[in-house]
Design brief:
Length: about 200
């Protein structure tokens, strides 16, 4: 073949081969990037605190709010003599009125937990989720609290169990820059305890 004899034709051949290789490489990288990228669930955009991707189904949102509910209740109600066991998570999960309620509850029960050396663990049961058109949500759940304390008078260990009913209201997180792992924050929490077992 005279293509390999003529320098001009040889140069043109290798130039063409290089262009074809670059084109194929670019196509391959683009294809890998498109097929392997994850679906974006939520990102901050101007004019809206959170954007929920249109590919998310109701079930996906339910799972997201369910996760927030479980984490919030465990963060709030898992406590020891010094207060919540994961106090540092509270500002990421509660905001506004919800944070005020949490702080007041912790302050009001601080003396009892300390004086009785009280420990308690929250076990969350099934969570029911309701979504609203504005992006807010409400969750209702039941569970139980297992509590162990020390009687101040007799110094005996006291074991107690409580049924917990909780209602939490959620809004879109307006501070995704500092807490981007939590697209929802709780702005209101109500719960009640009903004792069903005690060693007293």
């Amino acid at each position: 073949m005279d293509i390999f004899i003529s320098k001009e034709k040889l140069a043109f051949f290798w130039f063409s081969a290089a262009c074809v290789c670059l084109a194929l490489t670019a196509w391959y990288v683009y294809d890998v990037a498109i097929t392997s990228r994850g679906s974006m669930l939520y990102v901050p955009i101007e004019g809206s605190h959170v954007y929920v991707d249109r590919t998310m189904q109701d079930l996906d949102l339910d799972e997201l709010v369910d996760y927030h509910t479980r984490l919030a209740l465990e963060t709030f109600l898992n406590r020891g003599p010094r207060g919540p066991l994961t106090m540092e998570r509270l500002p990421f999960l509660f905001a506004g009125k919800g944070m005020e309620q949490v702080r007041k509850e912790i302050q009001d029960t601080k003396y009892d937990f300390h004086s009785r050396q009280m420990h308690q663990i929250m076990e969350v049961g099934q969570v029911r989720v309701q979504h609203f058109p504005n992006g807010d949500a409400e969750t209702v759940t039941q569970g139980q609290i297992i509590r162990v304390s020390l009687d101040p008078a007799s110094k005996e260990v006291v074991n107690q169990s409580f049924t917990v009913t909780a209602r939490l209201n959620w809004e879109r997180n307006q501070n995704l820059r500092d807490s981007r792992r939590f697209p929802f924050v709780c702005n209101n929490i109500e719960y009640s305890l009903s004792p069903y077992s005690s060693s007293e």
